[in-house]
Amino acid sequence: MENERNIKRFIWTMAVVIPAAVALLFLIPPVENLSEEVKASLYLLPKLNAYFNGTAFLCLIGAFLAIKNKNIKVHRAFTTTALALSMLFLVSYVAFHLTTESTKFGGEGWIRTVYFIILISHILLSTGIIPLVLFTYVRGLGMQVEKHRKIAKITWPIWLYVTATGVIVYWMISPYYPH
């Protein structure tokens, strides 16, 4: 019982700390005194982030197919990989935004509206998905099958959307990165 309480406390702490840390990134000026060569190389991180998100998306599809085929071992491997990729994304995202200026979207007209709808929904859902993913994952590891299944029906489509829109946002903003 105490262990379960500690897990819940950890998950809810992460659900607050991670979005707060990410929000602070946009208030903190980027690191100065970086050479132009280093600054240019940092723009590889968003592409890497898109790969992390895209691969996590594919892992989530694989996890879904595995569990539909009642292959728990493969399902667990795919979800663990998706979680690891999402954590790598977060570290890379923080590193990028600590070291570079924010890039403004340069599109105009209807594409600008589409971009901001996708971006805003991505940001809001990526904040809310944190506790859902962690609770779903912990319940799966603990073989709390009914609790896991119940929350996974909510978590999976949202996590899938967040990973997919992460790639789409990259595709849409990348032409405006400095070259």
Write structural notes for this entry.
With 179 residues, the chain is an all-alpha fold. The protein has a single domain (2-19, 35-176), classed as Cytochrome c oxidase, subunit III, four-helix bundle (Four Helix Bundle (Hemerythrin (Met), subunit A)). Helices cover 81% and strands 0% of the residues. α1 runs antiparallel to α5. It is globular and about 50 Å long. 20% of the residues are buried. The model has no long low-confidence stretch (mean pLDDT 93).
CATH classification class: Mainly Alpha
Mean pLDDT, rounded to whole units? Answer: 93
- The H/E string reads HHHHHH
Largest sheet: none
Low-confidence stretches: none
Overall number of strands: 0
Oligomer: single chain
Number of domains: 1
**Gap from first CA to last CA:** 54 Å
Please give the radius of gyration in angstroms. 18 Å
Proportion of beta-strand residues: under 5%
Principal-axis shape equals: globular
CATH topology: Four Helix Bundle (Hemerythrin (Met), subunit A)
* Helical proportion, percent range: over 70%
Overall CATH architecture: Up-down Bundle
The number of distinct helices, counting runs of at least 4 residues, comes to 6
CATH homologous superfamily label: Cytochrome c oxidase, subunit III, four-helix bundle
Instruction: Provide the structure class.
Output: mainly alpha
List keywords for this structure.
mainly alpha; Four Helix Bundle (Hemerythrin (Met), subunit A); 81% helix
How would you summarize this macromolecular structure in one to three sentences?
The protein has helices at 2-25, 36-42, 44-68, 72-99, 110-141, 145-173. With 179 residues, the chain is mainly alpha-helical. Helix 3 (44-68) runs antiparallel to helix 4.
